[in-house]
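Changelog note: in this version the structure field was regenerated for every chain. One regenerated record is shown below for reference.
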Amino acid sequence: QVQFVESGGGLVHPGGSLRLSCAASGSIFRAYTMAWYRQPPGKQRDLVARITSGGSTDYADSLKGRFTISRDNAKNTLYLQMNSLKPEDTAVYYCGAPGTPFWGQGTQVTVSS
């Protein structure tokens, strides 16, 4: 059984930054492609970014240059650095392993003045 726990969300002003973390239990974390998704209020859940076990990354086109996904396999942790945040980035952010049933419970990010 693999579990993911997100942290680092909160309220931030437009233009601010946040760093989300996703702690994974279990030693198989390093074998998985991992991803961050987000779900704005009343909307569907969409891909933010993903990273392979080897460190290759890809991003939603609209987020390139502002968000950075990374992972520390030694710490079983996934990260999402978010800069220049906008109100439209407000959402619940989820981490998980695409193609598996392993997903976290989400962390709320609210961008507001």
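Spot check on this record: The chain has a mean pLDDT of 95. Residues 96 and 102 are 6 Å apart (CA to CA).
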